[in-house]
Amino acid sequence: MERKDYIETGMKKTKHSENYEVVIIGGGPAGTATAIQLVRLGIQSVLIVEKGSYSDSKIGESLPPNTNVLLRQLGIWHAFKLEGHLQVGGSCSIWGSAESGYNDYFINPHGLGWHLDRNKFERFLANQACKLGAELRTKTLFESIVSETNTGFCLEIQNEKKETTKIQARFVVDASGAHAIFARKRGPSKNILDRLIFLSGFIEIPNAVNFSSLTMLEAVEYGWWYFAVLPGKRVIAALATDPEVVNKYELTKPEHWLALLRETKVLPLQLKPHLNLCEKIIASPALSSSLPQPCGPNWLAVGDAASSYDPICSLGIHKGLLTGMEAAKTITEILNNSNENALKNYHDFLETDFKKYKKSRDYFYGLENRWAHSPFWNRRKNPNHILS
């Protein structure tokens, strides 16, 4: 019951205060990782402001093996393993040719990967932050910056009852996701490298069907498909494509999306007669983008608020945890006046990580050359193109 109480009632271990050392806008993996690491580094007054309640379905459920290292560094590895997520031994892909290829995690020095119950994972991270002493307010919105001084910000937040509260913060973390609701008030908009649409649906697996635990990918002329088995005998299937393809074929309609899904090769034949959605199609933008100004005096952005990665690289949650941990180090140095170059170092860290990601993304898309006249694939053969 302890875990449920933290999330549903906003129970906190620290004394209530409207003045905080750090206020984190967003309670996803990046925000909660920042909070966990901040408290571990000695910053005790931390508030997480989360607009949701960890109940809505979310996509993004794959953890590559190297994320295990970050969970250990956050001090939550043993607790995570008790959560009942599914271990993954590797991936199977039809990419670059009509033949299936395999990537085996069993020889990875960091161990196996994971397929998550995403809501359960986010609740877990939030509870870990609360157990350490951070405060969490769910169903609460960041409304505005009331004032700014050289010692921090005064923010206005609003709860589900439409009650507003002014919060003083020495430092603000934007962990609000791709919308970057705080950072976009501080500087120029994002540089956008690519605009994918991710169309996802959840499918129940009949008991008679033996579905592989491998992550599965399949390139097609109009984009690529992704499949992963999840806890609770469900599969997530998702199509990454361009907005014009979605509009042309009306792919937000479940019957049209399912028709294309049945044509895939990597999906097991015995599952295809049972393709019925548990929920509606979820259409999500999947940008490749970065903020030219991801930090400034008394604030910084983490996770997707700082930069968004193409899901082909399966780095979304990993990046959130990694940037959160680096952000906590940076903030601690600033609040303790121990490193005058802390913000510059953080900015450089984000730039370096984005360059590594871009190189990886270009490599994956460069492997596929079967459709010379496909707008989808040709668009991704120009690695230096920046969209407005």
TrEMBL record:
An annotated Gene Ontology molecular function: oxidoreductase activity
User: Any idea where the FAD-binding domain is?
Assistant: 20-189
- Fetch the InterPro entries from UniProt: FAD-bd, FAD/NAD-bd_sf, Flavin-dep_Halogenase_NPB
Top-level taxon of origin: Bacteria
Pfam families from the xrefs? FAD_binding_3
EC number(s) reported in the record: 1.-.-.-
Q: Which UniProt keywords are given for this protein, alphabetically ordered?
A: Oxidoreductase
Q: What is this protein called?
A: NAD(P)/FAD-dependent oxidoreductase
Per the UniProt entry, what species is this protein from, by scientific name? Flavivirga jejuensis
